[in-house]
Amino acid sequence: MKKQEYVSDLWRTKSVSEVILIMYNLIENTSWDTNDKKRSYAVMKGIIAYTDRGDELLSHHRTYLHKEWDAAWLDQVDGSVKEEIKEWLIDGTD
Prior knowledge:
The protein is mainly α and 94 residues long. It has helices spanning 3-12, 16-28, 34-52, 59-74, 80-91. α2 (16-28) packs parallel to α4. The mean pLDDT is 89.
C-alpha cells in the first residue's frame, strides 16, 4: 500500500465532527490573528451544528474545510500539533 493510500484509509476512520474538533487545535497553533481564528471557529461551529442535526455535508462545506485545513497546516508556529494529529490518526487503527 502506498503512503497516500494508507493516510487516506486512516482519515476514513474519523468522523466529520472528530476532524473539525482536531482542526481547532490546528488553527489555535497558527500565526493567524485572533479575528481570523474566531472567523474560522465560527464557521466550523456552524458546520458542526449542521451535522449534529443529521444533515450530510454539502460540497461547499467540504471545500471550506479542506482549504482551511491546508492553510492552517502550512501556517503552524511549530510542529507540535502536526505530531499530535499524526498520533491521533494512528491511534484509531488499534
